[in-house]
Amino acid sequence: MMRGYPLLSFIVLLALLPGSAMSDANRDSFQHYQKLLDRHLIEHTQPGNGLVSAFDYRSALASDSLEKTLTEQRETLKGFNPGALEGKAESVAFWINAYNFFMLDQILTERPDGELVSSVWDYGGRVNPFVDSVFEQKNFVIGGRNYSLNDMEKGILLGEEYASKGWKDARVHFAVNCASVGCPSLRDTIYTADNLERLLAENTRRALNTARHLQVKGDTLYVTELFKWYEEDFAEASGSSKAFIEAWAAPERANQVAATSSLEFIDYDWALNTPDNFPTLDQPVD
């Protein structure tokens, strides 16, 4: 008659464990962002199991529920205390989600003359050096504090505090999405403590199987400029960018990379990640 108690105790213990599925803050904190992904994010598998994705901004803007969804998501994050995050997986997942949501929010809400930007650089930075880039503007409120996208990515996810905790992970470069064609794919699900490791590994592997990010021609390895801009992160993780690729690429791809002797970079395409800029979305997978 007492046999049910051990099971009940186990369930209660699970509920109390930090980072457990039952207590993961990401599920409640990003439910409105998940609605945007469900309705407007298009993922497409490439030959060799590569991946590209596009966000249909025009369909989002045509939705009667968009303003309500964005407002509710902003308000949820405005009232959320990041200090309540528990453990590496929940924390890393949270800041990836926050970065990706606020990038979409920026594009959907700040439209010069009512039109979508053609590139995130239209907001300032490279094109207009007298205006802070979208990555530097502290427009995004979490827990009553204003953050920039750079604060979230470089200051937190890839910053000194996370590095000192052993939480810094170079694969984050394949999870945060800069709303550009050249960026690794935005995924159709939020990150959680449960799926973080799987998605980081999958994102990296599939990006390295996508021609936009990696190509091998003869003995030359061509890679996304992410490996130039963030070379130190990849070297810190694996010793070098090439070693990082060999460690996380699919075995066949890793063998191809190992056989190369020179490295070149693929020009980064900063065009907005709208479906019109991805002709391959309409092509069947081999």
Description:
The model is unreliable at 10-21 (pLDDT under 50). The termini are far apart. The chain has 286 residues and is an alpha+beta fold. The longest helix has 23 residues, at 87-109. The relative contact order is 0.14. The chain has 13 helices and seven strands.
Topology:
Layout: H1 4-16, H2 25-29, H3 31-40, E1 41-46, E2 50-55, H4 57-61, H5 66-78, H6 87-109, E3 140-142, E4 145-147, H7 149-157, H8 160-165, H9 196-207, E5 214-217, E6 220-224, H10 226-229, H11 231-238, H12 241-248, H13 251-258, E7 262-266
Parallel strand pairs: 6-7
Antiparallel strand pairs: 1-2, 3-4, 5-6
How would you write the strand order of the largest sheet? 5-6-7
Percent of residues in helices comes to 40-55%
Terminal residue distance = 59 Å
Helix-strand makeup class: alpha+beta
Low-confidence stretches: 10-21
Largest sheet: 3 strands, mixed
Structure characteristics:
286 residues; alpha+beta; three-stranded mixed β-sheet; 13 helices; 7 strands; 43% helix
Tell me briefly what this model is:
The chain has 286 residues and is of the alpha+beta class. It has 13 helices and 7 strands.
